[in-house]
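ugh ok so i messed up the first submission bc i forgot one of the chains. this is the corrected input, ALL of the components this time, i swear. 891 residues overall. if the numbers dont match what u have on ur side tell me asap before i send this to the collaborators (the ones from the other lab, u know who)
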Amino acid sequence: MADRYLDLVNAGPLKSLAKKLGLPQPAVLRRYRPGTPLLPGPVLVLGSGAGADVLAKEMLGWDLDVRRHVAPKERLGGILLVLDELESPEELSDPMLTAGASLRALAPGGRVVTVSRPASGTGEPARAAARQAVDGALRSLAHELRGGATGNGILLGEGVDAGAPAVLGALRFLLSGRSAYINGQFLTVGSGTAALPAEADRPLAGKVAVVTGAARGIGAAIAETLHRDGAKVIAVDVPAAGEQLAHLANRVGATALQLDITAPDAGEKIAAHAAERNHGLDIVVHNAGITRDKLLANMDQAQWDSVIAVNLSSQLRMNEQLLASGVLRGAPRVVSLASTSGIAGNRGQTNYAASKAGIIGMVRASAAAFADAGGSINAVAPGFIETDMTARMPFLTREVARRLSSLQQGGRPLDVAEAVAFLASDAAGGINGQTLRVCGQSMVGA
Amino acid sequence: MAASPDATGTRPATVLRKAVVIGGNRIPFARSNGAYTQASNQDMLTAALDGLVARFGLQDERIGEVAAGAVLKHSRDFNLTREAVIGSALSPETPAYDLQQACATGLETVVGLANKIKLGQIESAIAGGVDSASDAPIAVSEGLRAVLLELNRAKSVQQKLTALAKLRPKDLAPNAPGTAEPRTGLSMGEHQALTTAAWNVSRAAQDELALASHRNLAAAYERGFFDDLMTPYRGLAKDSNLRADTTLEKLAKLQPVFGKNLGAEATMTAGNSTPLTDGASTVLLGSEDYARRNDLPVLAEVVDSEAAAVDFVHGKEGLLMAPAYAVPRLLARQGLTFADFDYFEIHEAFAGTVLCHLAAWESEEFCRNKLGLQKPLGPIDRTRLNVNGSSLATGHPFAATGGRLVASLAKMLREKADAESRGTRGLISVCAAGGMGVVAILEAN
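and heres the new structure output, hopefully the right one now
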């Protein structure tokens, strides 16, 4: 559904009027297109440790202009705050204030990224305080950014250096237009094996991916994005959605597999299809899901049970069957669709929120098994996304939902698909068991 | 081979190779003037092709040849199949041809293309058929047509006026297509009614066959049999003619519609006859090598086929009885008996058609006098007959029925062969207007 308000305040006389009246001014986001530069300008690297030097050097290899000092009046494409050696809260002052002085120079669609370490429950309280302080600082900074710029953080896991390939993979993603609708979020990078793609614009070349619920909406966008990134797609949806599924499949050179994922043997059928047609499977995207919204007081058993069966139980069963099938190869990557409803809760969605929160628990607990298989499992939690489903919301509810995020607009199915495609790529190999929000820093459940 | 130009220039195989069914796709069949009222034959055939392309990942692929046809066909659709191919996701460099053999059209496209594959002329093929009774062509009368043609030839105003003066009011009435045989003027149903009465097939037996057709089809949907054989179209996800809840009592209440003037009791109703139907079907065929190279499944082999025709014009045989002759000829050539088959797919044009065939093959007199056999072919195990429903339940978009039968039977044979780790065999029989019939054998191993 088109966001007419966004169109109006980005062109013509309404642009200045909205500014004068203090109305929300959602920006046109900088989204990824193959062949476009990583950032809309030079990147300023702040931080004095070895990590800052390593990352500055790496970024030079990405055709970026890297600055270690503020150059007066220069437009910046991004600011990287390398804070991995913080020992006390006072050390945060200098890099944060230097970054702050450069924020007005940040180009539309610019990026602020922090690199720091997570605060553990043990060790020096002052160090933990400093590390946790980054969390609050970055999330607040993200709220303050305008012009479609975003701020996100990378947390270095135990024993992970700033220059590790897994960190570089996450950094590239957060700097790029692929992360357009992700704001105020942290990605924890662990010790899993990661590799940057040989071809930056085809990070999934040679991969085989199955996408459930692919006939329309976010699922169709995921199939299109994985295809764009070089993957061969197996598009799955229920037989009743077969006509749209066939159209999608023919658009992206996929095979259409009409299948009810709640069938007891759904995982085995997917495995058999991938084994016969593609000789293996690298990526599984559990996107299929349903809503049966009702206040809990009015909910019947069918409404509760069907949502849990489709959104959660089916994924648990399919993961088990796929792991056992032997069809998963190399570094298998699973990406599940959660929801901000599963984090913040949502009135009328006890069943849906339960299923989506369940996904977050599932990926966390499945991480070890997929790490053993050389792969990873993560979730993406979309916020308000412009789909057929949200287009049916009442006008005012929809308008409020759109503006209730730092980016002051709904996301597109493509924005979710970009996050899925990243987590499905080997560049994200260091990320496992996590849930990444794609919500424009929604105020809900922040 | 008929492969790419850079293939080494070996001559077509002189030894016949196998042609296999890889899979199929059809759109749900819709009773006429229902869900597909606004869809043309080209629309439906394109949709069936696109579903097949999506299922097997054939986007932009150059298929060896596509053959399909329609029984009720507009004159503008002279290149129906090629036009559907151009509108589909297949490579626009895929050649195609139209074929028309009444209700045997669909099966005959499979046979013809399988033969080309067996000869090594093509590696892959798509067979198909489509029909719309809703979007049927309507022709001008012979009188009007003659006048229009003469008008076209006329040079002077005088000649044009002379031509127009020949026009009579009755010439303005259009000709709608029907199922009447051109040489007898009798509809197909009236013809079958004659045969049904001649073989003394009871109303109860016909209703039972119709009931089994609906129940079997409903059960097949229930267990997802059609999940990889069908792609929904225009909001329809199941054959709209299916009456899962029908009963013998409900069927018994229907009034006879055919054979009411035969003297004998009329037994044929709308319940045990197929309705006018819209729909399309496709079947992907290939050499074994093609299937292997493209990581595609092999469901069954197209082994052999036989066509027959009977003299119904002079009353020597019933209009739809040709398969009764084609089957024994095919069995004799292959050295097979009914006991050698796991499944029988006998197209249910009318319940009476199937039952007359069964009766004929069990009749010592028919088998001796008409077929020249020492003893009857014998009964067909009814538990192997049309086990996933047939035309009485699915409906019968004339040219699309053959593709439905071939894809479904091939899948059934593959499932049984895999489950029992042995070779399986099935027989398809389709009767057609003009006193014709085409039958074929499929095998899975």
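quick check: Chain A touches chain B through 24 residues (CB under 8 Å). that seems consistent at least. The two ends of chain A are 25 Å apart (CA to CA).
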